[in-house]
Amino acid sequence: MSASAIFILDLKGKVLICRNYMGNMDMNEIDHFMPILMKREEEAEATPLVTHGSSHFLWIKHSNLYLVAMTKKNANASLVYTFLYKIVQVFKEYFKELEEESIRDNFVTVYELMDEVMDFGFPQTTDSKILQEYITQQGHKLEIGAPRPPATVTNAVSWRSEGIKYRKNEVFMDVIESVNLLVNANGSVLRSEIVGTVKLKVVLSGMPELRLGLNDKVLFEITGREKSKTVELEDVKFHQCVRLSRFENDRTISFIPPDGESELMSYRLNTTMKPLIWIESVIEKFSHSRVEIKVKARSQFKSRSTANNVSILVPVPSDADSPKFKTSTGTAKWVPEKNVVLWNIKSFPGGKEYTMRAHFGLPSVDSDDLEAKRPITVDFEIPYFTVSGIQVRYLKIIEKSGYQALPWVRYITQSGDYQLRTT
């Protein structure tokens, strides 16, 4: 069981809109929510669940709104919070921004959506693409006879409509890996992880079934191919279209995809790796009046790959002025509002090393540098490359009409939170 009622409140706790799904609670109970929450916040004891008597309030805050689910039952809290975040996403896709003004301007649509996303306390259709097929923002004309909802609402495949037709059938798959890295001043890697996502753009007719094969370590062990290069995926999360029972049984990723763009899966790898772009920096001060910063950047991946749009942000003292730069490649500029030098390198092939020198005047260097040492941060993107070594071994497309479809796969590695501390 999920929620008896859902409320949307403004920052003062005034009810903007509410929906009583089960009729088993006094709706005036919501008046107790805000005073209890304010008292908890004053005592620094705010919690995501507030109780008054036998009423439980599970709440989230978004922009200038509180979304509150009210229940008396021992509800599945994780389901309730997932539902609250999901309806925030639905409202944002309808109204671009979800805030008090967009709720007030769209009362009719909000009520219609709240009627559809939950039924008698149970979550129903929460896919905005499907909802938009029969709940529009243009209002409704009176029709003779009850309007029929799309088949998707009563269909087992609620994320895809029937009867989709395209002249050319294609699937575009992007495997994107973000590298989060923290290196300390003596060059030791303190934290390194890879966060991967597999994104789809599906342009396929009918109701196709797709099967995706990866070089997954567990799968290769099951099938006795342990010597092949494999990747051990952790913390795997799938779109609802993936048949989880099949994945758990034999690691097959089998699904009927949503139409258009979607995120098929995400994964994480905690692995110690060599930094893809290594930075060394030396700061020298001269005669209490100027400072010279030497930065060396080295790409530590194979020469057949190239990092694009590399941005290296090097912190400088807050009182620095009169900058002069010299680079072996790319361009450097001072960004005084952030107290950094921004070194941009459009194309950085593997196995290369480049240098940048920056001279600054320092009007008041007598006080030893008391500023906290900020790390150097790096942004980059390497196409046709995955740092984990994940590979799409096959992408099969099966549709009863038997049409031929082209799958296209791209690999991209990019920087996430990529920081190198300096001495």
Walk me through this protein's architecture.
Pfam families: Adap_comp_sub, Clat_adaptor_s. It is a peripheral membrane protein. By secondary structure, the chain is an alpha+beta fold. It has three domains: about 5-155, Beta-Lactamase (2-Layer Sandwich); about 170-275 and about 385-420, Sandwich (Immunoglobulin-like), CATH 2.60.40.1170; about 275-385, Immunoglobulin-like, CATH 2.60.40. It is built from eight helices and 23 strands. The chain has helices spanning about 35-40, 75-95, 100-105, 105-115, 130, 150-155, 215-220, 245-250, and strands spanning about 5-10, 15-20, 50, 55-60, 65-70, 120, 120-125, 170-185, 190-205, 210-215, 235-240, 255, 260-270, 275-285, 290-300, 305-315, 320-325, 330-335, 340-350, 355-360, 375-385, 390-400, 405-420. The strands form five sheets. Strands 11-13-9-8-23-21-16-19-18 form a nine-stranded mixed sheet, with no helix packed on it. Strand 18 (about 330-335) and strand 19 (about 340-350) form a beta hairpin. It is globular and about 80 Å long. The termini are far apart. The model is unreliable at about 140-145 (pLDDT under 50).
| Cα shape | globular
List the total number of helices: 8
Rg of Cα set: 27 Å
**Fraction in beta strands:** 35-45%
Could you say which structural class the secondary elements and strand pairing correspond to?
alpha+beta
Q: Return the CATH class of the largest domain.
A: Alpha Beta
**Strands ordered across the widest β-sheet:** 11-13-9-8-23-21-16-19-18
Number of strands: 23
CATH architecture of the largest domain: 2-Layer Sandwich
- Look at the structure and give the mean pLDDT: 86
User: What is the quaternary state of this protein?
Assistant: single chain
Main sheet makeup: 9 strands, mixed
How many domains is the backbone divided into? 3
Unreliable residue stretches: 139-146
GO biological process, one term: intracellular protein transport
Pfam family, one: Clat_adaptor_s
Family: Belongs to the adaptor complexes medium subunit family.
Membrane topology: Peripheral membrane protein
